[in-house]
Structure formats: C-alpha cells, structure tokens
Amino acid sequence: MSVAATPRPVPAAGKLVVVGVGLIGGSFALALKAAAEVGEVVGVGRGRANLDDALRLGIVDRAVTLADDWTRELAAADVVLIAAPVAQYPALLRAMAGRLGPATLVTDAGSTKQDVIAAARDALGADFPRFVPAHPIAGTEHSGAAAAFPALYRDRNVVLTPLADTDPDAVRRVGALWTACGARLRTLAPAAHDRVFAAVSHLPHLLAFALVDAFAARPDREEIFRFAASGFRDFTRIAASSPEMWRDIAVANRGALLAEIAAFRAQLDRVTAMLETGDAAALAAVFAHARAARRAWEAAQGPAAAVAAEGPRDSAVGE
Fold it and tell me: Of 49, 98, 162, 249, which has the most beta carbons under 10 Å away?
C-alpha cells in the first residue's frame, strides 16, 4: 500500500524581493530560507560584485542591478524589503510606484521612520496601506552580502511603526516574517521611534565616529593608536560601520539627534566641572550610577542577544 506524500508547507512569502542585499537584507533572506518561509529571493542592488557574492553564498536565487529594469520583479512579489541607506528611499519608492502587484507588501529596515513614512506615502499613493515600516534592532559593524548570517535577528527586537491607515493584515503578515527570523516584535509610534533611537543608537555612532576621526587627525595619532587597547576597541567598534549608511541616518534624524547632542553636551559640562574642582565623590557617584544602569541593561539582554550582535567571523559567511 502506497503512503501519500506529506504536502510541503506553503512558504509565507513565495517571492521576496530584497532591495539592498547587505548585512540586514541578506540576513533577512537567509533567516527566511532557513525557516522554509520563502520560495524565491530576488536581490536588487547597485553593485554587481556584491550581488555576485549574494548569489555565490546562496542568499538570493536571482539578482538584478538598479541599472536594469528591476521594477519588473515587483508585480509578482509577495513581499518587498527595502534595506538600502535611507537617503536612497525616495528614489527607490518613486521607481516602485505603479509597479507593485495588487497584493504585494512593502516593508523596510531603515533606522529612521518619519522620513521613510513620508517618502512612502508620497510615492506609493493607493498602495501605501500595504507599506509596513519596520526597524530590526540588530547588526554588526560589517556590511555587504558577505556579512549576512541567518541568526542575526534571533532573540532581537524588531520595531514596527504602522500608521492608522496601514492595513492590519499587512502588519500581521510582515510581523510573521520577522517572527520566523527569530525576532521579537515591538511597536512604536514613528516619532517616538526616532526620538528613542536618536538616543540609544544614532548618538553613540556619531560619538564613536567623531572620537576616532579626532584621534586620526592628531599629530601623535600613531602613538595613540599604538597604545589603544580593549577600552578603545569596545567604545569605537561601531566606527567601523558603513559611513554612507550612518551619514544618511544622522541627516534624516537630525532634529532628534541634535537634541540628544545638546543633552549629552550638558552632561559633559557637568562632568567637566567635577574634574575642574576635583570633586571625586561626585565623579564616583556618576560612575557608580552608570555602572549599575549598564549592568542592569546587559542582564536584561541575555546571552543570545550578545551572540547575535557579534555574528560569525568566518570569512565564508561573515567578514
């Protein structure tokens, strides 16, 4: 007696188009492939070399450059993920206008949300309700397709910032894809998102870039870098991130970022005054309060988050 074959489960996304196949977009594709939640992945990008890496590593099944007629891939797509630098979004979204299928969902991975939403609303028109703005809180200092790995989002937060006119089913389906990647879903209003991440992400990156740049411009830079050790490495690791991406984020969220810079400058002035007067007790109180807050935050993250944040270092998958 023959046994009927067990039908294969239908993936959540039959066809996924990833615009920007770097660490973020590539890891999304790899995670969905590992979860058997995607059928075909089409990669779209500016550079042929990076797309060739994505093909070689099995991140995408087909690849087209932005110089090609890439928007022809959209009509049959179930989901489109935009994972490019945020300054590219307006042009990308305008190119997508009128080319989406009647049920195609669009989401993104940008680190700013108010500007992205405004660009999507302006470009997509009647298709805007199927745009679900998102921000995965994960990454490393590495970039490009070769940096992608499937566990990047495991046990990490992904923030969705839907609007009142966002289709609830679109939010559910996009959220299910991120959950399939191993992520934890969170929701914020767009303005609250930009304010929070100006503080906890955009300001730290700006400070790391500024500090390394300042040291590199000094006449004694060789001596400084020769003796720099783990403290310098830990504080400045994110200064090895993509300059283009972080330039775009800083400019896009400059209102909230300028407010955080002002608040941090006030804190530096406060600590400077303690040093000038030799107020050791006040300095110790600041340091103790900071240490307690940092340890509490680290304990709340758990060990899995630390692994995901670092990612693999093997050159075949990471960098």
Answer: 249
Kind of pairing between the strands at 157-160 and 184-187 = parallel
- Give the SS3 label for residue 5: coil
How does strand 79-82 pair with strand 184-187? unpaired
Q: Residue 249 has which token pair?
A: 């984020």
Rg over CA atoms, the chain = 22
The whole-angstrom separation of Cα 44 and Cα 72 is 11
Q: How far apart are the first and last CA of the chain?
A: 52
Angle between helices 114-124 and 89-96 (to 10 degrees): 20
Instruction: Name the domain boundary from 145, 162, 188.
Output: 188
**Residue showing tokens 């405004």:** 118
Residue 30 CA neighbour count, 13 Å, CB half: 25
Distance in angstroms (rounded) separating the CA atoms of residues 42 and 69: 13
pLDDT digits 0-9 by tens, 49-65: 999 999 999 999 999 99
Domain presence at residue 319: no
Does residue 104 contact residue 129 with C-beta atoms inside 8 Å?
no
Share of the chain above pLDDT 90, in %: 86
What does the alpha-carbon distance between residue 25 and residue 240 come to, in Å, rounded to a whole number?
19
